[in-house]
Amino acid sequence: MLRGLNQERIVFTIAVVLFVLFSVLLPGFLSAGNLLSLIQNVSILGILGVAMAIAIIGRGIDLSILSTMPVSAAWLLTLVNGGMPIGLAFVCALGFVIAVGIINGTLIAYVEIPAIFATLAMGIVVYGFGKAFMTPIDAVYTGRGESWFYAIGSGRVLGIPSPVIVFALVAAAAFLFLRTLKPGRFIYGMGDNPLAARVTGIPVRPMIILQYVIISIIALIAGIVMATALAGINTRLALSTMVYDVILVVVLGGIGLAGGKGGIRNVVVGTLLIGILLNGMTIMNLTYTVQSILKSVILLLAIVADTLLNPRDEQTAQHGDI
Amino acid sequence: MAASEAWTRWRYRWIPDKLVGEILSKSWIDTLIPGVILAAVLAFFSLKLPGFLSGSNLGDIAQIYGEYLIIIVGITFVMMAGGIDLTVGSTFAFCNLAALLLINSMEMNLALGIPLIMLIGGAIGLINGLLIGYLGMRAFLTTLVMLIIVRAVVDQGLLDYGQTISRGFNASTAWEFMGVGTVFGVPSSLVVAAAIALVGHVVLTRMRFGWHVMAVGGSRRSAYNAGIRVKRTVCLTYMISGLMTGLAATFYAARLTSAGTDVGKGLEVTMLTAAVLGGISLGGGRGSVIKAMLGAVIVLLVQNSLIRMGLTSGTSSLVLGLILLAAVAIDVRWVKNRHKILARAYVSPTYFRLPPLPETAAGSGSPYALNDRLRGVAAIGLGELDGPEDVIFDRDDNLYCGSRHGDIIRFFAPDHRRSEIFAHIGGHPLGLAFDPQGNLLTCVGGMGLYRVSPSGEVTKLSDETNRSLLSIVDDSRLRLADDLDIAPDGRVFFSEATIRYEMYDWMVDALEGRGNGRIICYDPRTGQSRTVLPNLQLPNGICVEPGGQSLLFAETWGCRITRWHFDGPHKGRREVVIDNLPGYPDNINRASDGTFWCALCGMRSPVFDLALRMPDFRRRMVQKVGRDDWLYPNMNTGCVIKFDAAGTILDVLWDLGGEAHPMITSIREHKGHLYLGGIYNNRVGRYHIPGADPAWTSNASYWGDRS
């Protein structure tokens, strides 16, 4: 019985237990409206979690998505507010995030900077670049125009909030990519054993660039959803600790930081647990600081469990892999 | 000599190319990079900002430096052990809060309060250390999560105690001194930082714990295998970081007495940038406290000056991020390519012209004319030996030789069939000599000069000599002691083949054509060694002449044999005995008729002689071609020559097929036979010398008959 316990199942069990507990103890938790808003609240986190999962499965990490997301979305809004057609503005933003992804990938694959540092520094650079050249003001709001575009984050389809649908679509696309496409399988191979992947002929370096470009594009999608859901976006989000929440979702779901393990299902499970937890704590009227203490302690426990369940392989761990 | 050749000769004589490679091989070269960056930063901002270098501006900046420099010492320890500490930002805020609460508001005694606050920081570090060191968690994520947790606790603390703190005021002079006091114009925090840096540097470079830290960072598994307690060492580094952060936060609290929500925010990124910019390697093992401090000074100068230049927060974080990226990129590429650059730059050929090659063809009438007299000589220890560079006999006719495995092997008289390992030294024992007391002295390649007593007890006589004043490579340590001989007064003269290459690379020295070797004198009366003849072209064989006042030495790459008077009326005089050998001379030893034997370990070839006159060609070869394809001197065939004190060649012995003795490095005459050793050979050869004195022994020739 204990043998079959992996982190995903533990987390899933905890999620179910919490769900039952909250349903019984907290009035209003089990209502349909609350459950939908529960999922809606974490859907952006979930989308970013999918992006982070792709990075971590390939034995990387991307700390820059929390800069790429608000900066690209804010720039898009700035362009649209300046009178540019939405389509063209989207292409511009897409070009920007692809450039960020290529730079990230190049720094990691060719300059050989550890992913954690390359993306940490790139996060600062992207935020600084955005503030200096793209969106001079912190908070950019959506314009007044009536467009399908604004419905991406705030509309409903068949009664389901559209962010949830976007999360589902992104998760499904990423699932198919990782499971059925060659580059997806390559990412697993690279995460499992980068040297072996290289020896067997996988084009590791171009694959890393592709990986980070995909991650950046998903970050843009998350940014658009967030901006349209909240009618605006604040670039100072880049300075917040939200990136740790994203890592929390991924690691909590059971994707080992050593790479090569886990899948999109783990992200969904992790996202659900966080959603239930945040929703429950909010209903219990805990203060923001207490919530963040509890959340981060859970994150710590999650990575302790990750270390115990997926111990680092000293044979294939690279020097300087911290 | 053509004009171009004269120019080449002049250019290689006076332009010291070898310094480039030697400087690159030093470990302090890494400090140069941040040093240059700091100079550039200072130059840039002093041009852009008027009054930048004025005392008041620097004084203002210096006020905040102390706190950061204290933290960076702790960070250095963590990073040198291969970790990373991102918690410092939050620990700093937490300790700041604690300091304000305990010392400022509750007016706790400083002598009690400061250690207490340091311990609070240390406790947070201990949690990190336990998780990372003992549980084996990843440093980056663990300290990141701790950063969030502690930050959340700080936020909660600010809500709970913010009012209390803002009302508090500690009027004690010591507290005020910590905040704004100066010692001879230097802020108190900076003085403390300097003291801590000094202690940190000494601990890291001179003490056991520091060495353990470096070893763990350099190679975790090797450190573990060497018996270092890796987990404890890693854990302690995080504790040190926490303690230092606590101390820094106390100074900060004393200076500003403010507990805003943004205290210490982004500090971890600043510190990381500083450490990496200073050249502390990610992953550990490389770096120093001084480098980290240089990095911190650069980052703080840039941050401060960017703000003073009126840049927006966006631009300054853009610049900071780009600096971090550039620093990590330089660091990663430097670590990866340093040895390649070094390999390309280290070999530094120079001009050397040998006289025309003497004739060796059979029937040419040359004294070196080929013959086949060494064909079919008897073999001793065939297949048992590996690399007997030199051969020697004791008074009881037992034969001794060295081996590649670091042993001295003894073959018992009279038939030299039975053998035993007489002593194990290590390295590769090369030249051998007996002293009057019957001790065997040997030059051990890679180790130095050693003595083996008749009972097999090994004593180190010398492994260092005086360091020359202007050398960049450390030439005090003996790298490749080669051959030796003992003067009548007991002084030992021994050659060191090269100071620029290790034993396994000795043949690369031939590509340089420079005098990299030396002769050293070990004096048993003082126990000291001193270099007596520097700058020789791979000095090899040494033989004290029967007069006891002069010695002959062979310079292998110089293809000459020289006499040097170390005593007597001509003391200090050096005269060339043979200046144009057809091959590369190795060991020289006495012959029974008062003349000398010399082994030629390889023969010259016109191609290599020509290459020696073309240093540019050899440089290009070293840089462009793999080292297996370099042009080396020929070491596949050799011979033995006999010459008298005037340098006349009396006899020559060849082995034409090269089957038994392709390369001869040593010869020893003993009771009418000549014994041949070879550093790459698997036997000792025994050749009957027609007409030689059947009773003559080398030992008696040096120290007289047994009395």
Structure description:
- The complex is a heterodimer of chains A (322) and B (707).
- With 322 residues, chain A is mainly α.
- Chain A has one domain: Orthogonal Bundle (ABC transporter involved in vitamin B12 uptake, BtuC).
- Chain A is built from 13 helices and 4 strands.
- Chain A has helices at residues 7-25, 32-57, 65-81, 86-109, 115-134, 151-154, 162-180, 182-192, 194-199, 204-230, 242-253, 264-283, 288-309; strands at 139-141, 156-157, 160-161, 232-234.
- In chain A, the strands form 2 sheets. Chain A has a two-stranded antiparallel sheet with strand order 1-4. Chain A has a two-stranded antiparallel ribbon with strand order 2-3.
- In chain A, β2 and β3 form a beta hairpin.
- In chain A, α2 (32-57) runs parallel beside α7 (162-180).
- Chain A is globular, with a radius of gyration of 20 Å.
- Chain A starts with 6 loop residues before the first helix and ends in a 13-residue tail after the last helix.
- With 707 residues, chain B is of the alpha+beta class.
- Chain B has 2 domains: 17-343, ABC transporter involved in vitamin B12 uptake, BtuC (Orthogonal Bundle), CATH 1.10.3470; 378-463 and 475-703, 6 Propeller (Neuraminidase).
- Helices cover 42% and strands 20% of the residues of chain B.
- In chain B, a hairpin with a 5-residue loop joins β20 and β21 (596-603).
- In chain B, α4 packs parallel to α9 (188-206) and α4 (55-80) runs antiparallel to α12 (230-256).
- Chains A and B meet through α5, α11 and α13 of A and α7, α13 and α15 of B.
Cα-based radius of gyration of chain B, to the nearest Å: 34 Å
Strand portion of chain B: 15-25%
Oligomeric state of the chains in view:
heterodimer
Q: State Rg of chain A.
A: 20 Å
Q: Biggest interface pair, residues each?
A: A-B, 45 and 51 residues
The major β-sheet of chain B equals: 4 strands, antiparallel
Main beta-sheet annotation of chain A: 2 strands, antiparallel
Overall pLDDT level of chain A? 84
* Shape annotation of chain B: elongated
CATH class of chain A: Mainly Alpha
Terminal CA distance of chain B reads 59 Å
